[in-house]
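user: can you give me the structure for this one chain? tokens are fine.
assistant: on it. calling the predictor now.
[tool input]
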Amino acid sequence: MGSQVAGSGRLLSVSLVSFVLFGTASWAAPPALATLATPTSTPPSTPSPSRTPLPSRTPLPSRSSTPPQGSTPSPTGNPDSAADARTVYCLREENRDDLLKAAQDLGLGKARSGGRIVPAGATKPVGVAEWRQGDRRADFDRACASLVLLRKLPKAPDHGSGPAWLGTWATTVGSAFLGAFATLLATLFTNRKANYRERAKELREASEKYRIAVTDVLEVLHSQQGAREKMEAMDPRMRALTGILLREQSRRGLRSNLEELRRDVKALDGEIRKRPPAENTVLEAELDRITDDLQRTSVLMERTLLLPRTGRRA
């Protein structure tokens, strides 16, 4: 009996110790272990009502991606109004020669007549439009840009020039002076030409009067009837003629002719006064020759506008 009680006591002690140990362990276990140890039921989640998605906006076209109507897109796809303006300017007929000259100065080709160019590295000339559309487009753009920029550059100031009013004054005074000088020359030319005509006319008249007087003398020279009176009438006309010839000897270009004519007139007068006088046929032939020379000389006096050496008059 006592042994049964002792065995029951030991069993009770072991059970108590086990209860204490396992009970304490269950209370000190972490939540995860506790969860595993104690299964719990999770209520099913209720789905929330879904939101209706908003319609997506249509993207607005950007200015750089859509070329304006009528514009030419640049090689990169974007329009370049400045480049278009330069192209239009350089393709104008009045600017074509300057464009080709600019290309030649830059070594991009050789300009040819007719608005054509031989591109650098090529052998055949092409037109400007073909040059621009071909594989040399960059050369065209470079020459065109250079031409436009060159014409925009300001002109170099002329530091040596005076004020603007001084140039205007000099131009006005110079024009007035040239006009007055031209008028003076025209007046001198007209007056001298009229003077020469008058003097040539005077020589012709004196020559004709002398011829008539000599002819009258020759008609009575061999008959001795009235010869003295005719010679006396011939003397003043001969002196008038020789005086004119002496006066006109100052004319350049006519001096030798006039001097020779004056000697011929005096020689004829000496032949007429000789005793016995020469034959009329000889004297008449000499008179005709002298008269013809006087007429030709008077024409030269009109046409030869040479200044006299002196203003001396007989």
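assistant: here you go. Strands lie at 109-112, 116-119, 126-127. The chain has ten helices and three strands.
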